[in-house]
Design goal:
The complex is a heterodimer.
Chain A (H helix, E strand, L loop, with lengths): L2 H12 L7 H11 L1 H18 L10 H9 L7 H28 L8 E5 L11 H4 L2 E5 L6 E5 L10 H15 L5 E5 L5 E5 L21 H9 L4 E3 L8
Antiparallel strand pairs in A: 1-3, 2-3, 4-5, 5-6
Helix pairs in contact in A: 1-2, 1-3, 2-3
Chain B lengths: L2 E2 L14 H23 L2 H17 L10 H20 L16 H10 L4 H19 L3 H12 L4 H8 L3 H18 L1 H11 L1
Helix pairs in contact in B: 1-2, 1-3, 2-3, 3-7, 6-8, 7-8
Classes of the chains: A alpha+beta, B mainly alpha.
């Protein structure tokens, strides 16, 4: 190899990025070629100068600002947060009772790993979270309540975090202005949560179950239609746990 | 029952990302991302904007992250594309005037670090000057060269990772890094030569 060829390989040699027999060839050349060895030393020093640049801390407030841009809905007044938190606990308590009952009276299969939420009106799927948009499996537009299921094999550990999910969806909806009306969230235990995006949270929770084991029954659809505020529905087929 | 496929670009059953997952990952990489952006843009304000824009874009397409590459490679790829796009839109490479305000590392931090090594004020000033000159020299490189050498020498990525981040072949990465170092060697000649006198 002549010096021109070696010269182009010196940086990769410094970085230990040469494959096969190139590395020993370059090393051999550097051992006897004074000019190339000098280039090698200069480039090595240049790399050291770059590597010596000190790492800087993030500017003050960087993460708070970034987080506010990512999830603007996460920044909310404390009073509202408390009310939502209380509502969530109420909802989860109701869900726990329902699940306990269901586990006694039903031998329903394990719930599918799915979350989903309904469209705002029949025939029109209006919005999806960026996190779930690409994962929508299918959409059922039959009847007044559009419904989509979303595969979610890894979200099981977050099955009880409905408040966060709804909060995120609310923020998305507010940002995109594409969604209105009620929002339904079906968690991994088969709990469907409805949330009116355009009105303040209400204290009442409604509940219903069905007995045919299908994912969404006509009765459940009727229950959905009757819901005017945040409600919990537990389809029998999805209450195995 | 009418059923329809809504989105076809992601296979059913693919992992769904949760916002909290994203935040946990982003927190791990935010400082490194900011430092890369700082070396690329040369300005604290632009670095902050670039890293926040990259995080925002990554957040919005988090579900598309296929886990075939590391989160950091994916995040840097987004930041790289943003930076290159911005640089191309400006249609010029940014040169900094030597008498313009300079970006230097925090004085207090530098003082503490060097004092602990028992260095005198003159060597302190020299160290700060070298840092400043290296930073300025970087800004004089074309964006693609700058990005390659920053990812390699400052961020410590391998050529394979850089090729993934910059969406180019490993041969191109090798060439960009080499040409960038050669240009920097010339720009930083006094400091490189000084070291050569000591070592040869």
């Amino acid at each position: 190899m002549n010096c021109d060829v070696i010269d182009k390989l010196i940086s990769a040699y410094i970085d230990r990025e040469l494959q096969g027999d190139l590395e020993p060839k370059v090393r051999y050349h550097l051992a006897y070629c004074k000019r190339c060895f000098r280039t090698y030393m200069e480039l090595q020093k240049t790399k050291e100068l770059l590597s010596s640049l000190k790492s800087r801390d993030l500017p003050d407030g960087f993460w708070q600002e970034t987080r506010a841009r990512l999830r603007p809905q996460a920044v909310r007044p404390a009073a509202v947060t408390k009310r939502r938190s209380s509502r969530l606990w109420t909802a989860l308590a109701a869900a726990a009772c329902l699940l306990l009952t269901a586990s006694v009276v039903s031998l329903a299969p394990d719930p599918p790993s799915e979350i989903g939420y309904q469209a705002s009106e029949p025939g029109r799927i209006t919005a999806a979270l960026p996190e779930v948009r690409g994962n929508v499996n299918n959409v059922d537009l039959d009847g007044p309540v559009g419904f989509m299921t979303v595969a979610s094999p890894t979200d099981r550990r977050r099955a009880d975090d409905l408040g966060t999910l709804i909060s995120v969806m609310r923020g998305e909806a507010a940002q995109r202005r594409e969604i209105s009306g009620r929002l339904g969230v079906l968690d991994l235990n088969g709990i469907l949560r409805l949330d009116d995006l355009n009105s303040p949270p209400q204290a009442e929770d409604g509940e219903s179950d069905s007995d045919d084991g299908s994912p969404i029954t006509e009765r459940e659809r009727q229950d959905l239609r009757r819901c005017s505020g945040p409600s919990l529905l537990v389809p029998a087929g999805w209450t195995g746990k | 029952m009418a059923k329809m496929q809504v989105i076809s670009d992601v296979a059913p059953g693919e992992l769904i990302a949760h916002p909290d997952d994203f935040e946990a990952l982003a927190l791990q990489h935010a400082q490194q991302l900011y430092n890369m952006a700082l070396r690329m843009t040369g300005s604290e304000e632009e670095a902050k904007d670039l890293s926040q824009d990259a995080l925002l874009r990554a957040y919005r397409s988090f579900s598309k992250w296929k886990r075939e590459c590391s989160f950091s490679s994916w995040l840097y790829r987004i930041a790289t594309n943003l930076f290159i796009d911005q640089a191309r839109r400006r249609k010029r490479i940014r040169f900094e005037s030597l008498d313009a305000p300079l970006i230097t590392d925090d004085g207090d931090e530098l003082t503490r670090a060097v004092e602990s090594e028992g260095r005198d004020p003159q060597s302190l000033a020299e160290a700060a000057e070298v840092q400043r000159e290296v930073h300025l020299a970087l800004q004089k490189l074309p964006p693609e060269f700058r990005m390659a050498v920053v990812l390699c020498d400052i961020q410590g990525f391998s050529y394979a990772e850089i090729s993934e981040i910059m969406d180019c072949s490993i041969g191109t990465v090798r060439s960009r890094i080499h040409r960038a170092r050669r240009a920097l060697k010339n720009l930083l000649e006094p400091y490189v030569s000084e070291a050569m006198v000591d070592e040869l």
